[in-house]
Amino acid sequence: MGVSSLPSLVSLSLKDLLQGNEEKRTSSHGCLWSKVLAAQAKKQKLTKRRILMKRRGGSRRGSNGIQRRVRTLKRLIPNSDSMELDGLFRETANYILSLQTRVRVMQVMVKVLTGSDE
């Protein structure tokens, strides 16, 4: 069997699999192929089920998750313990801008102190 006959054998077996040849279905390769397809279908079904369960569970505990995130945000932002939600968001935006400004100032200080002209 030469190398030139290999592509024709491969294309023939793929063609048989795609056409659903009866002989291939009853052979061990066909049986193995059907098991692989069944396993993939089962895995996809389980994956879809997990996604649906997460969506359902997420909506049930949605407000609890939001409350937890708000508490975490209040711990990160200074002096925000007694703020309402809209004030907390405003203060968070201001705090982010303040931190960005501090970073820029420190970058300028590093350039000046190291003498780099970048």
TrEMBL record:
Primary location group: nucleus
Source species: Abrus precatorius
Domain of life: Eukaryota
Subcellular location, record wording: Nucleus
Gene Ontology CC entries for this record: nucleus
Alphabetic keyword roster: Nucleus, Transcription, Transcription regulation
Keyword Cell membrane annotated: no
One biological process term in Gene Ontology: regulation of DNA-templated transcription
Protein name stated in the entry: Transcription factor UPBEAT1-like
